[in-house]
Protein 1
Amino acid sequence: MNVRRLLTLTASQSSAISRSTTVNVFSRKTLACLQSQAHRGICSSRVTQPLRSENKITVNFINRDGEKITVKGNPGDSLLDVVIDQDLDFDGFGACEGTLACSTCHVIFDEDVFKQLGPITDEEMDMLDLAYGLTDTSRLGCQICLTKALEGMTARVPDAVADIRQSDGSA
């Protein structure tokens, strides 16, 4: 479960004057997603708001069987986080746990959504080259962080996944 809390810490100085400092506490995965956004230059200076049900973002996945699965995710979470948090059964999805070392979280977007996703890094492009069913609107789910602008988006999971763990070792 992803928990964010707003804490107020009071620090006393030697002169007995107190000051308050506000600190945002994020989960490890949300912080990683924000760092990824900052690396790509698309992170805003605003900090995400505390979690409330109205802050959730609706995400639609089309699985390998063509079934539409609608779930909600938290702003700042990656699509990989949503799949894990919602316990969605996409075989092999996220084998590297979001470290950008595989292409198993490959998803395909409609053109209009793809244009909203921001720039793609060279590292992500290198991993996408290994993805099964690559399209012009393909991205890795571990690199897509949810924002309000993506409300109601649809991500299609390709028919198969290129996962070296499932290889028989002969090449």
Protein 2
Amino acid sequence: MASKGSPLHGPRIKLVEKAQSLFAETKEHTFESKAAEEHAKLLRMQHELEVTTKQAIFVDSSISDTIRTCIVLGNHRAAMKVKTEFKVSEKRWYWLKVFALATIKDWVALEKFSKEKKPPIGYRPFVEACIEAGEKGEAIKYIPKLADPRERAESYARIGMAKEAADAASQAKDGELLGRLKLTFAQNAAASTIFDTLRDRLSFQGAS
């Protein structure tokens, strides 16, 4: 029954705890003992989540997947508890939360999350998550925040914004990048002309 969590959770946890106690008896198996202890703790938390959510979808998933599923279900407190209990790094936490929020298309929450503090992973994952979700309008919010003009140029190109891509590429002063962008917009004569002009200007500056 979904409300009782996944079947045989009790015996499995006891087996893992028994293994942990056996490993703990010798110094040679410190790593195995710690791993078994962590696994038992994760199984207990996952069972509790299955009981509270009435969905048997947590047991046997990884720590990352457990956090991701909690966020997708809107249970942010549980996600934070898992993060804290298993000492998940801030970078990993940001990656998981960004893509989880994009999965459920909660763009308001994603934007709010981006403003809590300077993201330790930068803003590129925010851009990637929005583009992968097919939301170019959301991606535009984060592209200007990308520190590297090459990344800005490539990101604008991915959502079909030729002029903005050209502006960013000109700041990067990268002839190879301009060449790639021209190929990206090969069907757009006006855009191709812009990239050719920028490459010529860059070549002229390099020769002077």
Protein 3
Amino acid sequence: MTKTLRIGVLALQGAFIEHVHALNTLRDTEHIEKVIEVRTKVELDSIDALIIPGGESTAIALIAERCGILDSLQDFVRRKPTWGTCAGLILLANNAIHTKKGGQRLLDALPVTVSRNQFGRQVDSFTIKLDSPCLGAESVPFEYVFIRAPAIVSVDDPEVEPLIRLPPGHGQTETSENGLLVAVKYRNILGTSFHPELTSDNRWHRYFVRMALSG
């Protein structure tokens, strides 16, 4: 029997509904049984894979703690397929710099260091089209949307697989031959700085679904 997935989207704050819509476009082709908005431990326990959306990483962590699911969330992301986009990437990371005063709670599951708001304020948001071999044989570049986005400034484990880098100069504070990392894969975790859910291109969602199925 073909495996099917129940995929959750953490729906405490941020751009969760856009991820739900993107996943639903794949239900007929990618073996998705159900897409669930996750707000409780019961809902978290019912899913096979999870997306933590963009939004405000500090707020998401605080709401999760107040709802009593933060510890369960930390356990989940260490065991099951999880994708963090933008704020979700920050939450998954082991370390974050340029955080708000007093720091913030992290899920400590992805061995990278991220720089919060690496690219500046809302007015500094941008899009860029890049070739993305990890998404398959399609030759059409993907349009990447960056909104108050973090970047991965340090990879702290050799098992972390770099997937996408920006061209040199984008968001960098010093000259480097390599552009900033904005997408990585590590065991069961996918972390991306950008917002694929804000485009009509569902290839990154398909990538995650297939990653979850293969796990």
